[in-house]
Amino acid sequence: MQTIYYDLRDTKGQQKEIEEKISAAAKILREGGLVGIPTETVYGLAANGLDEQAVKRIFEAKGRPQDNPLILHVTGPQWLPRYCRDIPPMAYVLARKFWPGPLTMILKCRTDVVPGATTAGLDTVAIRCPNHPVTLAIIREAGIPIAAPSANTSGRPSCTTAQSVLEDMGDKIEGVVDGGPCAVGVESTILDLTCDPPRLLRPGGLPVEAIEQLIGPISVDKAVTGTLAEGEKPRAPGMKYRHYAPKAPVTVVTGAPEASAQEIQRRAGPTSGVICFDEYAHLFSRQEVHKLGPSGDKLAQAQRVFDALRTFDGSGVTEIFAQCPDSRGLGLAVGNRLKKAAGFHIVEADSLRIILGLTGCTGAGKTSALAAIRDLGGTIIDCDAVYHQMLAENEDLRNAINASFPGVFRADGTLDRKKLGQEVFAKKERLTRLNGIVFRFLIPELERQIQHTGDGLYAIDAINLLESGLDRLCDRTIAVTAPAELRVRRIMARDNISEQYARLRISAQKPDEYYRSKCDCELNNSAETPAEFQEAARRFFVRLLETIREEKRRGAQ
């Protein structure tokens, strides 16, 4: 069979030509044929969802097990009553908020027009409205719901481009519509509305947090984090069988990004393939590497995960190691796909607590340096924010301040910051006394917070890191420095002040040499833009973390 290729990437092209291609694809579907179609998640292998014979062809073309149900794709919630008899009000609440979009809902009591082949014999039906103009136009033109699992050979990584569809499905299907690369990159989130509370059956392009913000807590099916038992019937696509797998066996390494990178570095050999976050690619010069995106960019990871897995099939790697993001936001879906590709063969990286302390003069670039730590999955401890929270909640701290500076609290118990400022900035010894009170309460609170949150990377952001004694909590203290003239220009632009005032502010602060002499290491900022410095800082911290981890590992032996 010759597969017809319809290129619709240029949506600004001739409208008549676009309409003709959409009409041709819709005609194939109405006549029982199969078409690869774009969606915002992955490419789907589409057939008329109400035509049992056409649906059976999907299973044949993919080599898909017959007990793996399909999803009906529609153009909006007005289609729901046509295909199920029991629609809870919550379904319309979710549809109004998230359709079109990457949310699939499992609903009770499919109607008689939906064949058993579509639902794998279940009485429930899975429905979603894709957020892609081409596919929505095809569904409207065809006038039928489209059953469309991912357009890959069953078990292989899903397709996020039309070329990948042709690679897997060429000569097996009538047509492929190229609507460009998929914007999300992982399949839809599947939510079971036949139970209370609703249950997550598959994490996907709509983060769980967004759903819970709208409807409250949802439960998570065990198939999200493991495999179904032998003989157990899946209620949604992707729950039972090994999915997304390349030819070489996959091992997923979880844990903090720097820890999982180090674990892979220890395990990988010259014939290993590595899927890693961008900032750790330099660790694997001997291996074939596919970058997953920055460790802090979950959308980039979702867009790249299937391409990374598929690309290894054209190489000679004998095994694949993959870094896994945390389970927040889209990370849950990306991690789920990687773990299914590995058959849930997971290694937990040796996780350690690492605490960095950053200090330096204003204008040196501490904000950009802290952003780089966030990109590495680190948690920023803002001492100023902790202090203000303690002012609101810690009566002992308030009493101690009030005893030394009577009258700085209003009648309602809130701090009069202006009055306190006038008190302490009038004489240096008063400021020293206030800092001593604050530090006495702040350090134990930070120790408690860090202990409570457990292992991982932390950065303490404190104006008086060295003077307060907070440096004793840190594995390393870092002086963020910059040439004085650059600092002047940055402060002027940032705070919209004159050059004279900027120079006065700098002259009132400690010199860079003070921080250099007291900190463990220096991060110098000579970059022209914050983005350039953030990237340089990220590379600096990756190297520093490697050193600290190795020291801790040797110390534990």
How would you characterize this protein structure?
By secondary structure, the protein is α/β, with parallel strands linked by helices. It folds into 3 domains: 203 residues, DHBP synthase; 99 residues, Threonylcarbamoyl-AMP synthase, C-terminal domain (Rossmann fold), CATH 3.40.50; 204 residues, 3-Layer(aba) Sandwich (Rossmann fold), CATH 3.40.50.300. It is 41% helix and 18% strand. The chain contains 21 helices and 22 strands. The strands form 3 sheets. Strands 1, 2, 3, 4, 5, 6, 7, 8, 9, 10, 11 and 12 form a 12-stranded mixed beta sheet that branches. A 5-stranded parallel beta sheet has the order 15-14-16-13-17. The chain has a 5-stranded parallel beta sheet with strand order 19-20-18-21-22, with helices on both faces. α8 links the parallel β11 and β12. α1 packs across α6, α12 crosses α21 and α18 crosses α19. The longest helix is centred in the last third of the chain and has 27 residues. It is elongated and about 85 Å long.
